[in-house]
Amino acid sequence: VQLQASGGGWVQAGGSLRLSCAASGIIFGPGAMAWYRQAPGKERVLVARIMNSALYYAPFADGRFTISRDNAKNMVFLQMNRLKPEDTAVYYCAAEGAVTPGGTGDYWGQGTQVTVSS
After folding, report:
1. How distant, in Å, are the alpha carbons of 49, 86, 118 from that of 39?
2. Residue 7 has what pLDDT?
């Protein structure tokens, strides 16, 4: 299983970034896809999750971030708008309850750095 996240970078406050995650080795569709983030010295926290048509956003992301998925391309996206310096973190793509030929499990990507300057 591979989850390849991309799209991170440096942006000024108020700007936007779109993160992408390409999944391979899982049966894309069943299970949830999610984005987490981990700021320096802090725990990893859930940013957004999508499962079928159900969406969840952390309070800090609601109204600014949008999670979406393209099942045909095995990809999940996180559109982040009106970014703030406190959004600075490493963002991780996750497949939760992912179905693979070997069974079901949770998987993580390698993370992509997002830096928002004031």
Report:
1. 18, 8, 16
2. 97
